[in-house]
Amino acid sequence: MKGFYENNNETFVSEIPPDILTKYKDTIDEIDKILKTKYKDEAITSHDDNFNLNYYGKLIQLGIRTDLDNEDPLIKKIDEFTNEIAKLTIKGTKVDELDRPTLRSTKKEKDKVKTSLDASSYDVDGAIAYAHLWCEEGKTLRNPDYDFYDGMNDCTNFVSQVLYEGGGIPQVEIDVLGINYQAEENWYYNNGTGLYQPSYTWGGAHNLYYHLKNQSNSVRRVYSTADLEEGDIVQWDIYPDDGEFHIGHSTVVTKIESDGDILLTYHTTDREDYNIDNLFNAGYVCYAWAVNH
């Protein structure tokens, strides 16, 4: 697990450093209480034997922070604590080096970024059906054929499954000096270890972003949520205040309501048909992809 995180733009941290544990003890206790109430026997708290700070931070950002009202005093405490987590775990890119994000808007603004994952035969209905099959709020549903990521962040593994298993997009494996899993050009799943593990682009959100940006056909960035359609991929920088660019979460659009509300489905903290506004309202920065339209 340590190697997986460190090679996917995160530094693996197995425990909360003592100084941070002391400084944020009351906040951590409150977070653990919420996690226990929400996830019951499946909760991962700061006292868990399988604890790692990377996953704990995602649970907080996606399982607690997005549900809080903007007036809740816990928000400030969580933001301060998770900013400390980001400093320890994230290896990002300076924000001023980046493409612009996707904005929440009702105005269409299609702009193609040429991006070899071939999405030209993408089955949108199949992708959405697969996402709904393997995600249900309050449960942990996992396809056992993709168990390499057990105990780790599962959001991008899930999105890759949606694209491949549901959407029918072919996997890509090109020989790159025998170290295929590290290459940005590749996007595939293996269930082994070492040279036979999945490509970093399959399960790493940050890596998938660069694969879609630089190595894909029939996939393009969109800069307004008004341009999103069902089956599209929406990625997020969930630590927006740390001065770094780091994609830490991947989601799929599974429903667009008649009033324009966009609903997402995703893993890590599993959500089915969850309103995109909740992630925007938490302050997370959106980078969205149109798949074959």
Task: Return residue spans where pLDDT drops below 50 for at least 5 consecutive residues.
Answer: 111-115
Q: Indicate the percent of residues in helices.
A: 25-40%
pLDDT averaged over residues: 89
Would you report the number of β strands?
10
Distance between the termini: 36 Å
Biggest sheet character: 6 strands, antiparallel
Overall morphology = globular
Percentage of residues in DSSP E strands: 5-15%
Structural classification = alpha+beta
H-E string: HHHHHEEHHHHEEEEEEEHE
DSSP helix count?
10
Report strand order across the widest sheet: 4-10-5-7-8-9
Domain unit count: 2
Which key terms come to mind for this protein?
alpha+beta, two-stranded antiparallel ribbon, 293 residues, 32% helix, single chain, 10 helices
Structural features, described:
- By secondary structure, the protein is α+β, with helices and mostly antiparallel strands.
- The protein has 2 domains: 2-89, no CATH class; 93-291, no CATH class.
- The protein contains 10 helices and 10 strands.
- The protein has helices spanning 2-6, 18-23, 25-39, 53-63, 74-89, 124-133, 155-166, 200-203, 205-215, 277-281, and strands spanning 93-94, 117-118, 216-217, 219-222, 233-237, 244-245, 249-256, 262-266, 271-275, 285-291.
- The strands form 3 sheets. The protein has a 6-stranded antiparallel sheet with strand order 4-10-5-7-8-9. The protein has a two-stranded antiparallel sheet with strand order 1-6.
- Strand 7 (249-256) and strand 8 (262-266) form a beta hairpin.
- Helix 4 (53-63) packs antiparallel against helix 5 (74-89) and helix 6 (124-133) crosses helix 7.
- The longest helix has 16 residues, at 74-89.
- It is globular, with a radius of gyration of 18 Å.
